[in-house]
């Protein structure tokens, strides 16, 4: 089966501002499991699991990464991050497979990376990463439904898919052809 080519214009329908914990009331406590949204070049649209170790300042936290190691590999990496880089760990959503254009997080290089399903080969899924313009292959076990933390609630990308596709086609075409 041939799938349409995913381009920057088609991936824009899935792009939206993801809010962080700072946009909501409340702060994190020592021992809380969190995800760190990296703001570094080459790591945008990625999330790394961590535990809050300490809060030295009002909007800063020292965290210990779950999967990232120190340069000398002697133990888990710790870092100072701002509140705007943190969000709670999203709840697990059971997914019985994915369909074309589902927005997912793929576990790769020790973190979760936001991408879009572009196809399926056997039991594996093709995922396109807009940030890098590349497509990679993943087992279903390496994927999760993408969720955004908005106004203190988790919003699933599956909940947004129908609305986003409708908006895309309305913008691209004068009307739907059913």
Write a short abstract of this structure.
With 178 residues, the chain is mainly beta. It is built from two helices and twelve strands, in the order H-E-E-E-E-E-E-E-E-E-E-E-E-H.
Low-confidence stretches: 1-26
What form results from the Cα inertia axes? globular
Radius of gyration: 18 Å
Q: Termini distance?
A: 22 Å
- Classification by helices and strands: mainly beta
Q: Approximately how much beta-strand content do the residues carry?
A: 35-45%
Helical region count? 2
Pattern of helices and strands: HEEEEEEEEEEEEH
Question: pLDDT average, as an integer?
Answer: 82
The number of E-state strands comes to: 12
Report on the biggest sheet: 10 strands, antiparallel
Helical amount: 10-25%
Q: What brief labels describe this structure?
A:
178 residues, two-stranded antiparallel sheet, 2 helices, 43% strand, globular, disordered N terminus, Agenet domain-containing protein, Agenet-like_dom, Agenet_dom_plant
Textual characterization of the structure:
The protein is mainly beta. It is 11% helix and 43% strand. It is built from 2 helices and 12 strands. The protein has helices at residues 8-11, 157-172; strands spanning 33-37, 46-57, 60-69, 76-82, 86-88, 103-108, 111-121, 124-129, 134-139, 143-145, 147-150, 153-156. The strands form 2 sheets. Strands 1, 2, 3, 4, 5, 6, 7, 8, 9 and 10 form a 10-stranded antiparallel beta sheet that branches. It has a two-stranded antiparallel ribbon with strand order 11-12. The longest helix is centred in the C-terminal third of the chain and has 16 residues, at 157-172. It is globular and about 50 Å long. The protein starts with 7 loop residues before the first helix and ends in a 6-residue tail after the last helix. Mean pLDDT is 82; it is low at 1-26.
């Amino acid at each position: 089966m041939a799938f349409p080519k995913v381009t920057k214009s088609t991936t824009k329908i899935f792009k939206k501002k993801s809010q962080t914990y700072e946009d909501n009331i409340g702060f994190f406590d020592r021992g809380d499991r969190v995800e760190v949204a990296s703001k570094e070049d080459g790591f945008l649209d990625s999330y790394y699991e961590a535990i809050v170790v300490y809060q030295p300042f009002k909007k800063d936290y020292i965290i210990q990464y779950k999967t990232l190691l120190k340069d000398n590999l002697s133990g888990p990496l710790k870092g100072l991050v701002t509140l705007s880089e943190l969000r709670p760990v999203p709840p697990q959503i059971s997914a019985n497979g994915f369909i074309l254009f589902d927005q997912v997080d793929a576990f790769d290089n020790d973190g979760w990376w936001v991408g879009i399903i572009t196809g399926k080969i056997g039991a594996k899924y093709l995922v396109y990463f807009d940030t890098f313009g590349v497509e990679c292959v993943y087992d279903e076990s390496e994927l999760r439904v993408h969720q955004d933390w908005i106004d203190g609630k988790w919003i699933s990308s599956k909940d947004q898919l129908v609305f986003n596709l409708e908006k895309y086609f309305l913008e691209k075409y004068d009307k739907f052809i059913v």
